[in-house]
């Protein structure tokens, strides 16, 4: 009898194949009489027993002994997974509402979320946070195979362990358990026993895949009974390291099939090998099983004769009171607690091309390949490869092409976790295929497919290799499609590009927009690979409320178009494709600024506006309309400004406006880019532009009075004529300003004391040793030249009319012909002695200005007076509202009643008395002071007091001084806090509180930061001098009137600065109640406080509370922050464990990798550990190329600081090797 294996190694049934006998022609008649007897014998021969009918196991023939009758030797199939079957499976896929487990022979079962455990149903969480790909779990079939659906199973210990009792439990037995609560030293586990016994998993016994920090209530785990004494106990100790020990040897003599559980590990002694199939083994007490060759270690798989000694094996499937028993002796499967043993295949991923060596070929010409280890090519890899005949390229040689030992390049198309097999193919179609799986699809790749189904929200596309993608409705066409069913048909061919991959849900999203599919521009799918100036096609995804546009490219890379450009985009809509040019990119911040091509834009509105303005100017010229403020005009430069017969001014240039009226431009309003470095700007401007046309903007239209000396009125006064003059500017920013706001283009209205300004010489005084200067058209000043007090001789004047000077404002003279004239000084140092002399010469009297002779002796310059219209007053230069020019003393005297002269006199008398008192105490001989000397002393004293009050570090010495300061600047929290401190230094807490309350009333409510500072000072004061009642009352008021969260954090700082640990704890607990879902920093700061106060266990408990309270998206950041705290304040090994747990679940989180590296570099004892971690991250296949490059750069910097030339060169070689591998893979993909 010939045994034929069906579809090895996918699974199948061993069927009996009877050879056909072709009778000879002469024997046909001779056999007619015996044919009936033959048929009866054959029927009797093929009658199966009840055992064979139920389990499908035939009686062995030939060399097999009768002792193996009933031993399960078939390959596991989905049909064998009937209700009640127990199995061990690896998590293959995790979806939103269910997960898929893979067991032997690629059989897969579905576990709905409701079948995870009752504790999980009571405390639901995303399945992606509970399960890890490759994790091993025991399951029990609840619903057998129906059609194409997977059999359904449960993970609940109550079902999986339902046949067990606590008395049945022995050391080494593997069970499913569910976490019911997390304690300080471990976790309580529900083992499903009805008698109430539960398990305890200590922190030290937890597997690396599931550390204490990552455990959740309701999470199922595969556990081994550990250190069980055999006595009846309500607590059974278990461990997550399931593979470290076998089933207890004391149980082996009494072993039976019903005492085996999935995941249990025990020794298997070989008995009889079946060529090309496997070997029968004895597990003890004559309990026999069969290990298929696919489940043997690599060294035995292809040479069963070497299988002579007992080896460890694990139970993959069994059933109570039935012969079903599937075993595996593969070391990667026996390591049940280490998920990476299933998920990694010698660093080979789907889509990789590997060199395969033919190991065997079955009768259906399916080929089993063996691979060699990448680390040591002389050793056989623990992973094998398998290809069916249909997946192999067939040549003219036929079977000879795949002789045993021949080598072939094949591409990996899939893998099996439990069988440790790679499914490969070398057909031309698959070798050229660009996408082999959803997870390995690269955004922007061009693909072809067929429409599989049409939905209201998009199209489902069937791609090569059974991959299914989805085209959202927005991406089905360049223009919106309202009825997809009418625009597309099922089975229609369609061209697409990969839009992005949702790795967590294993979903592939495509775009069918022809503008993207047919685009020949750059494919943008990573910020790091984008270059400025690159042209790419994207899709408008958002139009912001402010008018900006967000453009999305492949792999959800986005860019921004500024509103000024977006306003010009024609027919702008969400979903429209648009081709743009990259203007600026910031890869670290993941930001990009782009600009559309001109074909998408309407004509430039700025140019249109300028043309419209030019037309308006022409119209105005024809209509002879006078210029108005904000008009942009083309004017003619006439020369130096003059009015009538008056002499020319050297600080103004005359202009002829479009309507023929007069205009002028001051030296300060010329283009600073051209005339900023000029010594005499107006002269240079006229030299270049006199008689030519220039573009200016009208700032104001003022009225200037022309005095006619030859004409007198009846009263004997001179008669003047009023002219409307357009004051203009050529400063580019003012000319281009689109808003008609006077404050945006006006002349500077305020000049505080001690400010540095630019002035233009406009004339000299005859007797007062001063120069008349002009700052801008509406502001003039008097520049005082330095002299000695006792010498009235003027210094030599070396200035020229129109020259630029840099001066300092020292005061305001409002008595100069009724105008506001600035007092200026050439000394740029603040509070100099020369200023005292200048102010002394003024003597606080109103003096009439002398005539201002010209610098040139033969000429005199007369300054025109600006006469403002009372009805249309644009500016009022007669009074300066800038309070910075007043001293605190003058601000305090504003409310006094009396004559101004009397105030000054009284002030001077007080200063005189002080000066006399000081002189009386000195050792200098008392000399009677002259009136002039007294005025000098008085002036110096006043200046000294003003200077002291204005100094930032000046500390007032009286309440009156503080009152003056806060009256001048009531919104300054700094002044108020100094005021409060003044009372506290005098131990007057009551008045300090009053000052704080006064500050809170007077500071404007919009000055939030100033109010916050005062509240902080108030709370500091109460904590130091108040009672618990006053502290509580003040704090409650503070959080009601400021940002509550910010004030809570500030209060924590106050308590911590005073070492009030209990108060800090209470405040943090209160903050958790209020802000636990709002701010992660509250959890982190509390944890850091506990760590710093040497309470690490409480900090770890806090992290568990945080994971329960926060949303899943916050779990990784909070675990990362607490892991950093472990490195800084706690146990670095715990920190390492937490980082490893995060990266096992989220290997693509480059931010976590980066922080982990920083912690290891900073806290590791040597350089070996950082180098090992660098090696891991740079060899991680799940990270994109751009991120790996970043880590290589970081590694190089590390070696430059900590390594030597040899280690640095080694890293560079590894980086070059990585780049070459990537280039080769990209080159192969393009074939």
TrEMBL record:
Residues 604-623, 903-922 are annotated as: Disordered. Residues 605-614 have a biased composition (Basic and acidic residues). Keywords: Nucleus, Phosphoprotein, Repeat, rRNA processing. It holds the Pfam family S1. PROSITE patterns: S1. One of its GO terms (cellular component) is small-subunit processome. GO terms for biological process: rRNA processing. GO terms for molecular function: RNA binding. Residues 903-912 have a biased composition (Acidic residues). It is found in: Nucleus, Nucleolus. This is S1 motif domain-containing protein. It comes from Steinernema carpocapsae.
């Amino acid at each position: 009898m010939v045994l034929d294996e069906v579809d090895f190694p996918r699974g199948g049934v061993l069927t009996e194949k009877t050879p056909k006998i072709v009778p000879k022609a002469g024997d046909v008649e001779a056999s007619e009489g015996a044919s009936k007897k033959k048929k009866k014998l054959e029927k009797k021969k093929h009658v199966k027993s009840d055992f064979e009918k139920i389990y499908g196991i035939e009686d062995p023939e030939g060399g097999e002994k009768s002792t193996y009758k009933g031993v399960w030797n078939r390959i596991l199939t989905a049909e064998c997974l009937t209700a009640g079957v127990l199995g061990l499976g690896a998590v293959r896929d995790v979806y939103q509402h269910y997960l898929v487990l893979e067991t032997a022979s690629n059989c897969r079962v579905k576990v709905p979320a409701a079948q995870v455990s009752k504790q999980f149903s009571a405390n639901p969480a995303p399945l992606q946070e509970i399960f890890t790909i490759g994790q091993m779990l025991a399951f029990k079939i609840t619903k057998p195979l129906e059609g194409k659906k997977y059999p359904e199973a449960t993970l609940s210990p109550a079902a999986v362990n339902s046949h067990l009792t606590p008395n049945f439990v022995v050391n080494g037995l593997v069970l499913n358990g569910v976490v019911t609560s997390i304690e300080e030293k471990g976790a309580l586990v529900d083992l499903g026993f009805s008698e109430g016994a539960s398990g305890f998993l200590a922190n030290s016994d937890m597997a690396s895949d599931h550390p204490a920090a990552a455990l959740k209530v309701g999470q199922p785990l595969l556990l081994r009974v550990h250190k069980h004494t055999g006595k009846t106990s309500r607590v059974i100790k278990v461990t997550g390291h399931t593979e470290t020990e076998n089933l207890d040897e004391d149980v082996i003599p009494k072993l039976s099939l019903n005492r085996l559980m999935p995941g249990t590990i025990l020794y298997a002694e070989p008995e009889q090998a079946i060529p090309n199939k496997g070997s029968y083994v004895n597990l003890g007490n004559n309990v026999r099983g069969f290990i298929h060759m696919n489940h043997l270690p690599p060294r035995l798989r292809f040479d069963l004769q070497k299988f002579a000694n007992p080896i460890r094996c694990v139970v993959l499937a069994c059933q109570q009171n039935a012969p079903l028993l599937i075993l595996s002796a593969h070391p990667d499967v026996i390591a049940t607690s280490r998920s990476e043993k299933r998920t990694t295949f010698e660093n080979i991923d789907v889509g990789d091309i590997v060199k395969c060596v033919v190991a065997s070929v079955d009768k259906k010409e399916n080929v089993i390949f063996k691979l060699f280890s990448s680390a040591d090519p002389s050793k056989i890899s623990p992973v094998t490869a398998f290809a069916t005949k249909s997946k192999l390229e067939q040549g003219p040689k036929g079977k000879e092409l795949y002789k045993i030992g021949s080598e072939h390049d094949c591409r990996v198309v899939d893998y099996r976790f439990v069988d440790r097999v790679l499914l490969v193919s070398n057909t031309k179609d698959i070798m050229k295929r660009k996408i082999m799986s959803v997870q390995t699809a690269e955004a922007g790749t061009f693909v072809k497919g067929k429409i599989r189904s049409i939905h209201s929200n998009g199209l489902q596309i069937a791609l090569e290799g059974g991959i299914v993608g989805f085209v959202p409705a927005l991406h089905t066409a360049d223009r919106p499609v309202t009825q997809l069913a009418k625009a597309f048909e099922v089975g229609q061919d369609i061209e697409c590009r990969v839009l992005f991959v949702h790795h967590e849900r294993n979903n592939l999203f495509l775009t069918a927009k022809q503008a993207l599919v047919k685009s020949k521009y750059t494919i943008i799918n990573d910020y790091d690979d984008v270059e400025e100036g690159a042209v790419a096609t994207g899709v408008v995804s958002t139009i912001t409320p402010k008018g900006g546009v967000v453009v999305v490219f492949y792999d959800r890379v986005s860019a921004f178009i500024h509103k000024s450009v977006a306003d010009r985009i024609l027919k702008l809509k969400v979903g429209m494709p648009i081709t743009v040019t990259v203007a600026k990119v910031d890869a670290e911040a993941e930001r990009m600024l782009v600009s559309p091509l001109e074909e998408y834009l309407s004509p430039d509105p700025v140019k249109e506006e300028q043309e419209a303005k030019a037309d308006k100017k022409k119209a105005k010229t024809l209509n002879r309309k006078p210029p108005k403020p904000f008009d942009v005009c083309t004017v003619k430069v006439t020369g130096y400004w003059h009015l009538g017969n008056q002499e020319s001014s050297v600080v103004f240039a005359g202009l002829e406006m479009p309507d023929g009226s007069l205009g002028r431009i001051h030296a300060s309003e010329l283009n600073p880019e051209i005339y900023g470095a000029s010594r005499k700007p107006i002269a240079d401007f006229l030299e270049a532009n006199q008689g030519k046309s220039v573009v200016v903007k009208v700032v104001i239209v003022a009225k200037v009075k022309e005095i006619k000396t030859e004409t007198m009125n009846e009263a004997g006064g001179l008669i003047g004529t009023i002219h409307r003059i357009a004051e203009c500017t050529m400063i580019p920013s003012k000319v281009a300003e689109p808003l008609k706001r006077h404050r945006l283009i006006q002349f500077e209205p305020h000049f505080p004391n001690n400010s540095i300004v630019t002035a233009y010489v406009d004339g000299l005084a005859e007797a007062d040793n001063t120069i008349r200067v002009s700052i801008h058209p509406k502001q003039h000043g008097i520049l005082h030249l330095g002299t000695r007090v006792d010498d009235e001789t003027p210094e030599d004047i070396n200035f020229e009319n129109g020259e630029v000077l840099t001066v300092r404002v020292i005061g305001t003279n409002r008595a100069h012909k009724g105008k506001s004239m600035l007092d200026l000084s050439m000394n740029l140092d603040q509070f100099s002695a020369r200023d005292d002399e200048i102010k002394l010469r003024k003597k606080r009297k109103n003096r009439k200005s002398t005539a201002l002779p010209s610098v040139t002796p033969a000429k005199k310059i007369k300054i025109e007076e600006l006469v403002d219209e009372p009805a249309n007053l644009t500016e009022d230069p007669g009074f300066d509202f800038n309070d910075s020019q007043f001293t605190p003393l003058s601000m305090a005297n504003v409310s006094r009643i009396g004559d101004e002269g009397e105030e000054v006199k009284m002030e001077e008398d007080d200063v005189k008395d002080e000066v006399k008192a000081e002189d009386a105490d000195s050792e200098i001989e008392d000399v009677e002071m002259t009136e002039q000397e007294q005025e000098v002393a008085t002036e110096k004293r006043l200046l000294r007091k003003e200077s002291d009050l204005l100094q930032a570090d000046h500390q007032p010495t009286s309440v009156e001084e503080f009152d003056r300061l806060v009256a001048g600047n009531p919104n300054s929290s700094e002044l108020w806090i100094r005021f409060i401190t003044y009372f506290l230094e005098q131990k007057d807490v009551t008045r300090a509180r009053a000052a704080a309350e006064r500050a809170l009333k007077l500071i404007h409510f919009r000055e939030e930061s100033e109010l916050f500072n005062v509240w902080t000072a108030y709370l500091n004061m109460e904590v130091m001098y108040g009672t618990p009642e006053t502290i509580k009352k003040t704090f409650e008021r503070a959080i009601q009137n400021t940002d509550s969260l910010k004030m809570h954090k500030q209060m924590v700082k106050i308590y911590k600065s005073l070492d009030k640990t209990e108060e800090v704890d209470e405040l943090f607990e209160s903050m958790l109640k209020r802000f636990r879902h709002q701010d992660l920093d509250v959890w982190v700061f509390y944890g850091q406080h506990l760590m710093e106060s040497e309470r690490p266990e409480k900090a770890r408990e806090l992290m568990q509370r945080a994971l329960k309270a926060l949303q899943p998206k916050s779990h990784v950041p909070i675990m990362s922050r607490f892991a950093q705290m472990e490195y800084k304040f706690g146990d670095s090994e715990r920190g390492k464990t937490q980082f490893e747990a995060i990266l096992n679940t989220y290997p693509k989180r480059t931010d976590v990798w980066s922080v982990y590296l920083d912690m290891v570099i900073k806290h590791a004892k040597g350089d070996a550990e950082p180098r090992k971690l660098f090696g891991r991250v740079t060899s991680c296949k799940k990270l994109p190329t751009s991120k790996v490059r970043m880590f290589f750069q970081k590694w190089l910097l590390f070696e430059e600081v900590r390594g030597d030339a040899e280690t640095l060169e080694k890293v560079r070689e590894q980086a070059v090797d990585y780049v070459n591998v990537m280039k080769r893979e990209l080159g192969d993909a393009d074939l």
